[in-house]
Amino acid sequence: MSDESSRPVCVLGLGLIGGSLLRRLDADGATVFGYNRSQTTVDEAAGDGHDVSTDLDTTLDRAADEDAVIVLATPVTALGPILDAIAVRAPQCLLTDVVSVKEEVARIVAHHHPDARYVGGHPMAGTVHSGWRATDPTLFEGAMWMVSTHDDTDPHDWLAVARIALATGALVVPAADDAHDRAAAAISHNPHLTAAATAAVGGGESLLSLRLAAGSFRDGTRVAGTAPELQRAMLEANSVALLNTLSATIDRLVAARDRLRDHGDVAALVEAGHRARLAYEEIAGEEPAPITGVDVGGDGWAQELRRQAHLARVWVG
User: Fold this and answer.
1) Residues 106 and 133 occupy one common structural domain
2) CA distance linking residue 216 with residue 195, whole number of Å
3) Is residue 68 over pLDDT 80?
């Protein structure tokens, strides 16, 4: 990490994502400290040798004194009171987050801390498990980490957030908040609902169905194992984009049902899905091409980062 990116990092929330971030940065020798409201979580993290506390005010006072980058790593439903405290105790600190929606978080930040220096972020990584014991310092290796990139984004703040992502082993995907939320609805949030539907239908049939269940059921319902309250916080915060992708899913399923009833085949949906899966496998199997020719802070830098990201390129520093 460069001198600019070696500034202290304060992680608020030590669940799977926040805790994994703290563990990775700590392992790499960065100055990193954290907060969690749960005494049990803090005791576990402290027992593993990390600098953590249940005292939010003291943690924020330290962040202000050290000019730390504050990472919001709580569910979206818990952000308001934390931002109120930041606005009072650490108003000048740069903020980022690791929440899976961006427009709603930006709205909450603007409401509770309108003068905040804020650059959103979202690492595309996770498991169905939660809590400190689920954390993993290698969780972000090779993952895509979206960093909010708008025409009015401060380039120095953007670099500070992007370099935190790079320090975890992730690759940076610059994107506008609305574009991120539409993409996340399609490839993350909608699959949570389709997984829930598959699990509910399969599990509601009989115990024989569950006994016979193998790879397709296991893989297709994996994310349904995530704690329901965490799923709801994520899905409901992206309701507009999710409604659109859910409607598209329902339309395709209804068309497949009608075709099967009237003509005895489901070719259209199966073939469309097969093509999309092959396209995903092709892009996932490639080494991502890097974004090139962009001077962050130069004329049109944010627009050009977004343009290249829409070509599936990533920023590697």
Assistant:
1) yes
2) 11
3) yes
Q: Is 10 left (phi over 0), alpha (psi -120 to 50) or beta?
A: beta
Q: Which residues contact 120 (CB under 8 A, 6 or more apart)?
A: 96, 97, 99, 102, 105, 106, 146, 147, 148, 177
Q: Domain tally for the chain?
A: 2
Number of helices and strands in the chain (H, E): 14, 9
Read off the tokens for 128. Answer: 């169905």
Beta pairing partners, 11: 34, 71
Residue 232 is part of which domain span?
A: 181-284
Quote the CA–CA distance of 50 and 89 in Å, as a whole number.
23
Q: Cβ(74)–Cβ(82) under 8 Å?
A: yes
Q: What pTM value is reported for the model?
A: 0.90
| pLDDT tens digits along 102-161 | 999 999 999 999 999 999 999 999 887 888 999 999 999 999 999 999 999 999 999 999
Specify whether 248 is located in the same domain as 221: yes
Residue 1's pLDDT is 35
SS3 (DSSP) at 69 = strand
